[in-house]
Design brief:
about 425 residues, mainly alpha, hpI Integrase, Chain A, 3 domains, three-stranded antiparallel β-sheet, 17 helices
């Protein structure tokens, strides 16, 4: 019995010009964008020195040559001059417009900073996987955590090249090549070990409050009760609170990190303890920030004047040594960094006073260990989880997937309200 094997039909080249056999190998006769005359050229695959003898591969090579010529021609008619530095500037301009409602543009800018430093004159199309691995090594030497490099910095660099490929600013194989770079594995030599975020004992929080301004102290306690992100506290305004929808609970609505994807405001229940702290700030204008660095600085100076032991007739009289127009002026609100620095100054002040009180030596450790506001979020989560379970803690912190159904989102809000009534 004779078996008939049907051969797959060879795909015909549908692009410009004609692909033909020159001896046993394939050539392409075409006038590609940017050229004046028709030209015959061998279809040589990357890594080879001779034209291919496979028709399908010849079509792929021809398409790559065509794509490269098209984006080269597009460069001539755009702002892009082909350099990596110029690509970064164009991409950041796009990001500042695209992510104007969040900090994402700033985060991308930080992630891209090593590129012009390491490769100031490099053409964008020459940035490959080896150069990206060099960037990885550079970030390791900067003592960045493995998770920061793997989840933030390197993916953001890859994202820029993906965007550039979609705009035909660089060839498609650039992003494909960069996608082969693997994440830094756990335990790699020289990588900064990841510190586990731990909950804070309440005594370490209460101990620093006298050494903070009243505004920063209120921010710390709001953070401790609610477990919000630092930025979500810094951007609070009276207009962001819904006080009517629920009997004993306020709903704080703000733009979170997923707002630019979902277009939906994050809803955070505010319980009685936190309401008591915030009530005095609700008299501000609807669009004014609750926590003002300028007001905090004024209160700090007032407190210093009250604690002044030098007579007014000696030294500087109150207010005479203040510059009328200082180079650095307080912003209209705190950000996560200025908030963190204010807390760290409070910890340093508390430790200084306790070391004197306890008569500690220089070699003795500080009574209050250094901690960051982010640990307050973890502390609130730990407290709610211990009392009401993991689901309530997750709901309170606002952990949700952007694909979660509306029904599940309502369930999460209900659990978060129960946690806020009891803990916040």
């Amino acid at each position: 019995m004779k078996v008939i094997v049907k051969m797959a039909k060879q795909k015909k080249w549908e692009g410009p010009g004609s692909i033909y056999k020159n001896g046993s190998r394939y050539w392409w006769k075409v006038r590609i964008p940017g050229e004046v005359k028709t030209k015959a050229r061998p279809l040589i695959p990357q890594g080879s020195t001779k034209a291919t003898n496979n028709y399908d591969i010849a079509c792929i090579v021809a398409q790559d040559i065509l794509n490269h010529a098209v984006f080269k021609e597009n460069q001539k008619n755009s702002q892009f001059d082909g350099s990596l530095a110029n690509l970064i500037n164009i991409y950041l301009t796009y990001c500042r417009e695209r992510y104007s409602s969040s900090n994402e543009a700033y985060n991308i800018e930080v992630a891209l900073r090593p590129l012009p430093k390491l490769y100031p004159d490099l053409p964008a199309e020459e940035f490959d996987s080896l150069k990206l691995m060099t960037v990885q090594d550079y970030l390791i030497k900067q003592k960045l955590a493995r998770s920061t490099i793997n989840k933030r910095r390197i993916p953001m660099i890859k994202r820029m090249f993906k965007w550039a490929v979609s705009r035909k600013l660089v060839p498609g194989f650039i992003f494909t090549n960069l996608s082969t770079v693997e994440s830094i594995e756990r335990g790699r030599h020289g990588v900064k070990p990841e510190k586990k975020v731990t909950a804070l004992p309440e005594k370490h929080v209460i101990a620093i409050l006298p050494y903070l301004t009243s505004i920063v102290a209120d921010m710390v306690m709001v953070h401790y009760y609610t477990g919000l992100r630092s930025t979500e506290i810094c951007i609070m305004k009276p207009a962001d609170f819904d006080k009517e929808s629920h009997k004993n609970i306020w709903i704080y609505k703000c733009k979170d990190k997923n707002f630019w994807r979902t277009g939906e405001l994050k809803q955070i229940p505010i319980g009685p303890k936190t309401q008591k702290i915030l009530k005095k700030y609700m008299k501000r204008q609807a669009k004014a920030y609750l926590f003002s660095p300028a007001e905090s600085m004024a209160k700090m100076r007032e407190k210093r004047r009250e604690n002044r032991t030098t007579k007014d007739s000696y030294g500087n009289r109150p207010g005479t040594n203040i510059k009328s127009n200082p180079l650095v002026q307080p912003n209209d609100r705190y950000n996560k960094d200025s908030y963190r620095r204010a807390v760290q100054r409070g910890i340093a002040g508390a430790n200084k006073a306790l070391r004197i009180e306890l008569k500690l030596k220089k070699t003795d450790t500080d009574p209050i260990p250094k901690w960051t506001p982010h640990q307050l979020r973890h502390t609130a989560s730990t407290n709610v989880r211990a009392d009401m379970g993991l689901d309530a803690a997750s709901a309170m912190l606002g952990h949700s997937d952007i694909n979660t159904t509306q029904l599940y989102a309502e369930l999460q809000l209900k659990k978060a309200i129960e946690a806020a009534e009891k803990h916040g």
